[in-house]
Amino acid sequence: MAEADTDTDQLGCTNRAVWAVLGLFWNRGERRLRALWRLALAMVLFGVLSVAIGTAFQVLAIRSIVLTTLAPTMAEPSASVVLRVLSLLVTAIGTTLAVWIGTRFLDRRPLADLGVGVDRGWWLDFGFGLALGAALMTAIFLVELAAGWITVTSFFPSPLGAGVGTELFAAVVLFLAVGIYEELAFRGYLLTNAAEGLTGVPLLTPRRAIGLATVLTAGLFGAVHANNPNATLLSTMNIASAGIFLAAGYVLSGDLAIPIGLHITWNLVQGTIFGFPVSGTAFGTSVIRVRQSGPPVLTGGTFGPEAGLLGLSAMVLGTIAIAAWVRARYGTIGLYKGIAVPELRWR
Predict the structure, then answer these.
(1) How far apart are the C-alpha atoms of 54 and 58, rounded to whole Å?
(2) Between the CA of residue 170 and those of 71, 87, 100, 166, what are the distances in Å?
(3) Which of 40-54, 143-157, 298-312, 328-342 is the least confident region?
(4) Could you state, in order of their start, the residue ranges of all structural domains in the chain?
């Protein structure tokens, strides 16, 4: 009898040891992988899907078909813009699919849990984000114009040919795609999973976990842009600050409506309306043609306003405006704790 009890105790100890090891990877209560491994697998999935989609574009000769179709109306600069958009669409499609698959099968949550539960209120916040992005970039332009750092050389592209229309349309598509897939990936998927993973760490309440996750993903956002053309240490730091600025609408409201709208018009007005470089890239065609001077530490120089103190000031003002909007819309303000508490499809 004593021997049987000893065997049972040993088996129990073995089971506890096995589950202790498995517990590093598997959350028994939530019946899914822990956040660190979900994020790692999502990154692998993104790489695989991007390569697969890029290969599909080549096999189907989509690039050649598009260029052949547009060739009669398209000059070389237009072709360059279109190819840039096609390249970005591969990234956008790969990222969006990776987020959807990761959300459904790794996270076991509805996609709406990432802040894309579209309803009337969501569209209202989205409209505010669109207006805010446009207003902030317009303010930057007017300040530089008043300071004499900008000279307007022409209004509207000249000549107004079909190629110019193609360039402008391609730029709009590009900035729509960037605003959607970057917010879905960085603020939606990465920030949410990081906040969930950090919740439960000693001294980290859900709201503290959200704050730390916001800082960590903002740092990653800056690092991803560190290799952009004309990037500097200041531009990288400012882009990281932009990650916090863009996250404000999500962590305060629980929806991605404000960040998506804000991201779209910040880039669109910056590059397509006023002709500023966007994160180091100049797109050539814009509604207003300008010649820029002034101290790069203020204007951002060849990287664009994000790399200057004017851009950083606009982000601070924008964050205050977002906080005021959320307070007016929801009657209160604070970090939305639901970001760190998953709504799983089953437990």
Answers:
(1) 6
(2) 15, 12, 25, 6
(3) 40-54
(4) 117-340
